[in-house]
Amino acid sequence: LLAEDLDADHTAQSLLSDEESAFQLGPQLNGPDRPLPAELFVELFEAHAQRRPEAIAATHNDTRWTYRDLDDKANHIAHALLERGLRDEDVVAVVMERNLDWLAAALAVFKAGGVYLPVRPDFPAGRIATQLRRSDCRFAVTEPGSDAVLHAATADRDCSIVVAQETYGDDRRGNPGVPIRPEQPAYIYFTSGSTGEPKGAMCEHAGMLNHLFMKVDDMALGAGDVVTQTASQCFDISLWQLMAPLLVGGGTHIVDTDAQLDVTRFIDLLAAGGVQVIQIVPAYLDVMLSHLERDRRALGDLRSVSVTGEALKLGLVQRWFALYPGIALVNAYGATEVSDDTMHAVLDRVPDRDLAIVSVGRSLRNVNTYILDEQQRLVPLGAPGEIAFSGVCVGRGYVNDPERTRQAFTTDAYRPGTRLYRTGDFGRWLPEGTIEFLGRRDEQVKIRGFRIEIGEIENRLLQMPGVREAAVVIDGQSDQTKNLVAFFTGPDALQPADLRDFLAAALPEYMVPAYFHRLDALPLTENGKTNKKLLVGLAGTY
Ligand code: ADP
Question: Which residue is closest in CA terms to ligand 1's atom 25?
Answer without folding.
Answer: 311
